[in-house]
Amino acid sequence: MPESTLTMRVKRHLRYAIYGVLMPLISFEGQAMTEINIAFTDPLVMPIADAIVHGNVKQIHQLATKSLLQQQGEQAVTLMQWAILNQQPESLAALLQEHADPSQPGMQGDTAWHTAATVQDAHYMQILLKNNIRPDARNSVTLATPLAAAIMAGREIQVILLLVAGVDPNIADRVGDTPLHLAGKSNAPDLALRLLKAGADPEARNKQGATFQQYLAMTPLNIQSAEMQQKYQQLNVWLRGKKLAEVYQQ
Description:
48% of the residues lie in helices and 0% in strands. The chain is mainly alpha-helical. The longest helix is centred in the first third of the chain and has 16 residues, at 5-20.
């Protein structure tokens, strides 16, 4: 049986709470951290971490070495994640030019791909995609893909960018959830429709034996907003066209 709506919400809030551990170190709203030595205690890493925060591209190029670019700070934050979270796109581009690895596992097992997929500004994802590196990295703990992360965060632009880049929408995480399942758990029929149009399998089942439709159907349609009801209607039109069961039978 699929998880209850309450259970899913608790899990989602727990995930956000985990990220909240980093809030004293990094502001997700662009307030660059001034005390670099809190996030990076290695004196060899602190200069490049400081250069990243201040967008000092020249210094990044001067300091970057293969071993230095692999270093991580508090909560395993990578230098590429550090650039994204401090809202420094030029620093991120410079790190890529120096061959930093966006697939390096960092905070909570996420890579820079996952971080770029979840932040509000989609520009970081665009920067990563310009380097012709496949965005198919997996979270080292959950095995979730960047596409799954974008779905969970409700980042439609990143979802579109990743699908256009040709990512596989059917890769499941360690509990068998595909991005389509996560769209269902997140009550996002519009994102589910995008995934379906990109080739997501509507009949895929997770380890609980549930399809994405079972999660979408958990919240009664009559308590949804008018906008949300319209999104469900659009999804059902597509499902009917493919001769598949609707989320809500009319």
